[in-house]
Amino acid sequence: MSQPHSPATLVVGLGRPERTPGASVGPSVEFTSTFVRGGDNAYARFGNPTWSAFEEAIGTLEGGSALAFASGMAAVRAAVDLVAQGGSVLVPQHCYNGTTSLLQQLEDAGRLSVRRADIADTSAYIDAMDHVSMVWLESPTNPMLEVAELPTLIKAARESGVITVCDNTFATPLLQKPLELGADLVVHSATKYLSGHSDLLLGVTVTTNPELQQRLLTSRTLGGAIAGPMEAWLALRGLRTLHVRFERACDNAARLATRLAEHPVVERVRYPGFGAMIAIEVRGGAAAAEKVEQQVEVWLPATSLGGVESMVERRRRHASEPVTVPPQLLRLSVGIEDVEDLWEDLDQALSSSRAS
Ligand SMILES: *Cc1c(COP(=O)(O)O)cnc(C)c1O
Q1: Where are the domains of the chain?
Q2: Does residue 200 carry a pLDDT above 90?
Q3: Is 207 in the pocket of ligand 1 (CB under 6 A)?
Q4: What is the pLDDT of residues 252-273, one digit of tens each?
Q5: Which of 42, 140, 288, 314 has the CB geometry, 3.0–4.6 Å to 353, for a possible disulfide?
Q6: What is the CA(59)–ligand 1 centre distance, in A?
Q7: pLDDT in tens, 68-107
Q8: Distance from the CA of 236 to the center of ligand 1, in angstroms?
Q9: Which of 80, 137, 141, 191 to mutate to test ligand 1, by most ligand atoms within 8 A of the CB atom?
Q10: Residue 355: which pLDDT band, with cuts at 50, 70 and 90?
């Protein structure tokens, strides 16, 4: 039989030990700081077999070589460190705010310069690529859910010889594979959909470029932002169900988006037409939006996304969020619960946000 390619089969089968008689069917967790000399592993900051199993799985799904990092931000940091001293990075105006804040901090320190543009405006984003050292891509964007024309943007960046990095956290490799489109590097917060249970932090980089892979490995080894073996093991275990979790969450999101568009308390729905993230603007401003957060009983009022549990958050409660994000915007991370229960809960919370 030829190698299976369907993601539903891959997530179940990848990263397992060889099928030898008596072998365990899944990898075990290697809790060790070092290894007996003479084998493939030397010291556990350089590599750990539990990471390797997870990396094999994500690498195959994205179509490149993966490295696990301590968190999504550790992976983002390692990617940004590829920019030479004094270089510049083009970043979407709306983007994961940890990425935005990190770049701002590096710019303030004189390490690099930052250029911002609207990633949904393809020609403006391409124009802004002129003379930058790295093009950062995120689509759909957090929390505005703008969608970028990735094939066109990646092609343009390649033609000008710029390193392209795509944060693929929101779409996952099930919906979008930036490396196949020609991106140099994919980063993920595996904290979100990939692990899927809101029980760990983990990041990952994936690339097809051996030189970048080597530089990222050096960065991880010497920077020390390594994953815990338990986190890597849990993430691989969570990944086994990515396909069914994500399918259900996306289906729930599509149904909710349609109903939310009709809701009298909802001014605007931002839903890209795919994925499991929705943003809504609530009538009555920030106070009404916060009332919704307080009234929900099934949805969790919490930051983060991509878990089995549905979460809601007014993003502008964070001072780091750009002022172009409406104060009344609620970001919804749709989980895998029964869609009718999710709807009823949201509907009652929205309706009661009106009465005060
Ligand atoms: C959460 C997130 C990150 C950061 O990941 P952590 O695991 O929290 O460090 C980066 N990018 C996106 C799009 C995210 O949602």
Answers
A1: 7-239, 242-355
A2: yes
A3: no
A4: 999 999 999 999 999 999 999 9
A5: 288
A6: 18
A7: 999 999 999 999 999 999 999 999 999 999 999 999 999 9
A8: 18
A9: 191
A10: low
Taking the centre of ligand 1 as the mean of its atom positions, its distance from the CA of residue 109, in whole angstroms, is 23
Report the separation in Å between the CA atom of 40 and the middle of ligand 1, taken as the mean of its atom positions: 31
For ligand 1, say whether the CB of 203 is within 6 Å of any of its atoms. Answer: yes
For ligand 1, whether the C-beta of 192 sits within 6 Å is yes
Give dist(CA 135, CA 64) in Å, integer. Answer: 19
From 138, 188, 192, 199, mutation site for ligand 1 pocket: most ligand atoms within 8 A of C-beta: 192
pLDDT at 2 over 70: no
The atom number, within ligand 1, closest to the CA of 170 reads 13
**pLDDT tens, position by position, 146-166:** 999 999 999 999 999 999 999
Which residue has its alpha carbon closest to ligand 1 atom 1? 189
Please provide the CATH number assigned to the domain covering 7-239.
3.40.640.10
Is the CB–ligand 1 distance for residue 225 below 6 Å?
A: no
pLDDT-based confidence at 5, cuts 50/70/90?
confident
Residues sharing a CB contact under 8 Å with residue 64, sequence separation 6 or more, in sequence order: 179, 186, 206, 207, 208
Q: pLDDT tens-digit profile of 325-343?
A: 999 999 999 999 999 999 9
C-beta of 167 in contact with ligand 1 (< 6 A) = yes
308-343 residues labelled b (16+ CB within 10 A) or e (exposed)? ebbbbbbbbeeeebeeebbbbbbbbbbbbbebeebb
**Domain 242-355 annotated CATH 3.40.50.720:** no
Helical residues (DSSP H) of 116-164, grouped into ranges: 122-127, 150-159
**Helix %, strand %, coil % of the chain (to 5):** 40, 15, 45
Give me the residues paired with residue 65 across strands. Answer: 207
H or E segment to which residue 185 belongs: strand 185-189
